[in-house]
Write a structure and sequence with these properties.
This protein is an alpha/beta fold. The protein has 2 domains: 104 residues, Translation factors (Elongation Factor Tu (Ef-tu), domain 3, Beta Barrel), CATH 2.40.30; 110 residues, 3-Layer(aba) Sandwich (Rossmann fold). The chain is 23% helix and 33% strand. It has 8 helices and 15 strands. It has a 7-stranded antiparallel sheet. Helix 5 links the parallel strand 9 and strand 10. The structure holds flavin-adenine dinucleotide and FE2/S2 (inorganic) cluster. The site of FE2/S2 (inorganic) cluster has 12 residues, from loops.
Length: 274
């Protein structure tokens, strides 16, 4: 890997000229394996840390010339100038990123995509499965600064509950489950039965990210109760900003690009759970 050479010129120059910053090198400050095959990478990027909104993602570029396309990851947390992502090692790109250490450099572009709409004073139920949890950790972090919002995290894991410790400081309540016990629908049913779905007379809004079958089940669950539901899609991507048309999804408004029209769509727009 290349050692980091500090230079934010390209970002500063683009911003000064009124442009979105192009891809640029950033310094990795921390890399830790949370559970086998799941890594949390932190890098220093004042622009992304300042501008990222919930469910927006960053493109990370590999060093391999045979993999020119970047890999998208939801922002999972910010701390001052630092930005973290959490990812599963599933292929060659993530394998390379998992080998990075503090002091290494990586090329990054972002923040990209349309975020969750969290302007409403509401009880936000953050429903995530597997590697859908990182963007919802960041959503909880941002909503923790909003006195009009309440949050309940509902997380489903295959086995180890590796992200609970990251969301607990931000969410008002956290419940999680693994495959030995059930899934996020099991938790949503329990929450409803225990009266935990409604808080202080606020509207309940479901924000969700995870595997497709899980999100379809969450949208159907929300539709049955006439609850607002926004879903952040994890489609395979190329460019990440609307030019290659690799990432389309069928919606009631026709085929849309997950990277530029999303990744967040309402259940109504996706035509799910109607
Ligand atoms: C908006 C967005 C946010 C994402 N956020 C996260 C995140 O926070 N954490 C995380 O672990 N992953 C996230 N992903 C998925 C992540 O981008 C892929 O896992 C990664 O690009 C795989 O790269 P690779 O080179 O290791 O795998 P590849 O060799 O490219 O592929 C390996 C396997 O992963 C599958 N895959 C590749 N890309 C995707 C994708 N976009 N969605 C679903 N399956 C895919 C392939 O079909 C293949 O089976 C996100 C994807 C999107 C679109
Ligand atoms: S990834 Fe290129 S258009 Fe969406």
């Amino acid at each position: 890997m290349t050692a980091f050479t500090p230079t934010y010129d390209v970002v500063d120059e683009a911003v000064a000229a009124g442009y979105f910053p192009p891809r640029h090198p950033v310094e990795i400050t921390d890399a830790v394996e949370l559970t086998p095959g799941v890594v949390r990478l932190t890098f220093r990027d004042p622009y992304i840390a300042k501008h990222a909104r919930p469910a927006q993602f960053v493109n990370l570029f590999t060093y391999d010339p045979l993999m020119p396309m970047p890999r998208p990851f939801g922002v999972s947390e910010t701390d001052g100038d630092l930005v973290s992502v959490i990812f599963a090692v599933v292929g060659k790109g993530t394998e390379e990123f998992a080998g990075l250490d503090a002091g290494d450099s990586i090329q990054v572009l972002g923040p990209l995509g349309r975020p969750f709409d969290t302007k409403q004073a509401a009880h936000y139920v953050l429903v995530a499965g597997g590697l859908g949890v990182p963007p919802l950790i960041y959503t909880a972090q941002r909503l923790a600064a909003d006195p009009a919002a309440r949050t309940t995290a509902v997380f489903g894991y295959r086995n180890e509950h590796f992200a609970d410790r990251f969301i607990e400081p931000y969410a008002d309540a956290t419940v999680s489950i693994d495959e030995s016990e059930g899934n996020v629908i099991t938790l949503l049913d329990r929450l409803e039965a225990d009266g935990g779905l409604t808080v202080d007379g606020l509207d309940t809004v479901i924000l969700s990210c995870g595997p497709l079958p899980m999100m379809k089940a969450v949208a159907a669950w929300a539709a049955k109760r006439d609850l607002a539901c926004q879903l952040s899609m994890e489609q395979r991507m190329g460019c990440g900003y609307g030019t290659c048309v690799l990432c389309t999804v069928d919606t009631v408004d026709g085929r849309l690009k997950v990277c530029a029209d999303g990744p967040v769509f309402t259940r109504e727009r996706l035509g799910w759970g109607e």
